[in-house]
Design a protein that fits this description.
The chain is mostly beta strands. Helix content is about 10%, strand content about 55%. A hairpin with a 2-residue loop joins strand 3 and strand 4.
Length: about 450
Amino acid sequence: MKNCLLFVCVLFSTTLIAQEFFSGIGTSKRVGILNGNFNPAEFANLSSKMELQFFATSINFSNNKIGFGDFAGDADLEDLIFIGDEPVNVRIDTEIAGPGFAFRQGKWGFAVTSKAYGKLNLVDIDVNIGDAIANNGINSILNSTTLNGNFNQRIIGTTYGEMGFSVARSLWETAKYKLNAGATFKLLFPGSYANFGMDQFQGTVTRVGGNSVLTNSNATLNIAYSGSLGNNFSNFDSYSDSVFGDLNGFGADLGITFSIKDEKGGFKFNSGISVRNIGAMTFNDADNLSTNYTLSIQGIESLNLSQFENVESLQEIEQILLDSGFVTAISQNNNFKVKLPTVLNAYADLQLIPNLNLSLFLQQKITDDANNDQVTAQNVITFTPRLSLKHFEIYTPLSQTEIAGFNAGVGFRFYGFFIGSNSVMTALLNDSKQADFYLGYRLGLGKI
């Protein structure tokens, strides 16, 4: 368990990567497949008659504990992440957009896209229980700490792929205005999954003989795993080896856009609203298992938390708990369904003067990250001033994220190539708690 908790610290220190995916470029005036990923109605606004997407990759890290300035100090990251009273939240998310093709014909727009996702998230981990497992409670001022969590603490890892089929149409168009609607229908290919949830956890952590022990404890646990992440969900290979599984789920995006045209055929104002990632996928690997347990430690009984220090898999955690005799299974399923991270996206892009635009983007999650069957998402709001020429763009996303707070970045587009970060400026000038990187290439063919 220590390795699972500290993997996020190791990854942060070695790769330095975070944000919402493709911030800034996803609302570019050069409308392409990335815009359609934010809102499928944008496929009826394609800037080129056809577009080929070769690749696009976004890797994101966000946390609420460790900043860039901490790397200059002497303290260990595993000590810092469990300091204070605020629960630990960490999001490590990767999206890889594979080959895609889109085209526009008259009032219609169509696209076929492919993506792969990998996620490792810590959700509302109590600093005291985390410190007890990772550090034997060395951050605790007292030898005994009483815990009373009225929320679900989760460690979740997942990989899955998708194929998207999009259609959009202009519903109403005049010389000045345009209204579109669109939809993307997704085939989902669940790869692997691991979830450890500990809800309504109560107990006392005490240091005894150099170890941390848990007494007087009650909780409801969920332990679920499928594929390679059940064997080890702190190892990168467990994610890269199992991205695409068999077809076993469906999803959808729905959206509308409204635009005010300029004299050159572009837009003075473009706006949209969409609901993305509606749907779920079922994991049914041969080694699948999702079990709900009750945990009860009473009287003079105690559980030595040092047993979890070098654990690397959920099966090991589950076996230690079963061997202790403190857990009782209340339900079990071999196949289980996991919900996609449904979000509401809304945005508006205004041309202030020729070639200078300002956009506002909002991402609001609709689902609850505390649910054990839920893939997580973040709430984000981003302002992006943008210098936009025909073949070149430079933009500065200014974001407020749910986990890491405020960040500022920069991005560039040259013809179909783009590269950017949502947090590089904050990281260089301030003590940012997130980092990210994205890049990609697409080719537009034919004039509208």
